[in-house]
Amino acid sequence: MADKVTIGLIQAKHDVHGDEPVHLHKEKAIEKHVKMVREAAGKGAQIICLQEIFYGPYFCAEQSPKWYESAEEVPNGPTVQQFSALARELGTVLILPVYEKVGIGTYYNTAAVIDADGAYLGKYRKQHIPHVGVGSSGCGFWEKYYFKPGNLGYPVFDTAFAKVGVYICYDRHFPEGARLLGLGGAEIVFNPSATVAGLSEYLWKLEQPAHAVANGYYVAAINRVGTEAPWNMGEFYGQSYLVDPRGQFVAVGNRDQDEVIVADMNRETIRDVRNTWQFYRDRRPETYDDMVRLLP
């Protein structure tokens, strides 16, 4: 593998009003994102990540059974199949965040990982599920209504271009999984998100650079842009970025416009940082038992 790998991050505004039927949301969002994936690949991106549940609005602003209709099987659902064909055509790795349905009435917030030949490598299911109000209008991140906590651990995927980990949105507030991804060999961790100003923006450029430094890998953070009606619970403030293992921002997207951010990660940087800061050598897991004890 070459030391340099070109990363593509896609941030986009969702253009369909929330009152419209689910099939229209998916149709329009998928059409937009196919074009943006092609744009990223045209700029040389080898690994491309889309935003959290990219094919719809952030419907967790409300609690409505309407949105269960948007869930699909992974990998056999139509969206993963369509983007697998696209990955194969373009020769790119895709991190594809979707709403997953299992059996009858079981749902997860999931990201499928598709290799550059279109092969499905596996999936990550969001582990930490928020249930947090925003403002005084009754809107919020009501995710426990829609998702079960993930049950597949913290897998690392050996793709054609790099060893990839995935953490989804609210997961980023928990350092434990970020460390497990590093222990699993991740060279870059993608965090597709949907988060608004007024709640989390002060943390956006603090936590994930800290994960990158503590674990000696790159982090790619993706956030959507704009406001979404009818909820209008806040501004999705974009600023998707790639940050290196020194905590330095390699590239940062704009705040309020659709954008394809393309930048390079470099394994030489990972090696240099890990040789300087031997955090994996010096960690003391035998002293951390209290971390996993259940509190009374």
Task: Offer a quick outline of the entry.
By secondary structure, this protein is an alpha/beta fold.
How would you describe the overall organization of this protein?
- The strands form four sheets. Strands 5-4-3-2-1-16 form a six-stranded mixed sheet.
- Helix content is 24%, strand content 27%.
- It is of the alpha/beta class.
- The model has no long low-confidence stretch (mean pLDDT 97).
- Helix 2 links the parallel strand 2 and strand 3.
- Helix 1 (22-42) runs parallel beside helix 2 (78-90).
- The longest helix has 21 residues, at 22-42.
- It contains seven helices and 16 strands.
- The protein has helices at 22-42, 78-90, 175-183, 201-204, 207-215, 267-276, 279-282, and strands spanning 4-11, 47-49, 93-102, 106-114, 120-125, 131-133, 140-142, 156-158, 163-166, 188-193, 218-223, 225-226, 236-237, 241-243, 249-252, 259-266.
Percent range of helical residues: 10-25%
Kindly report how far apart the N and C termini lie: 48 Å
Which strand order spans the largest sheet, edge to edge or round the barrel? 5-4-3-2-1-16
Number of strands: 16
Helix-strand string: EHEHEEEEEEEHEHHEEEEEEHH
Rg calculated over all Cα atoms: 18 Å
Name the average pLDDT: 97
Sheet having the most strands: 6 strands, mixed
Question: How many DSSP helices?
Answer: 7
Query: Which structural class do the helices and strands define?
Result: alpha/beta
Please give the oligomerization state of what you see. Answer: single chain
- Inertia-based shape: globular
Are there runs of 5+ residues with pLDDT below 50, and where? none
Strand content: 25-35%
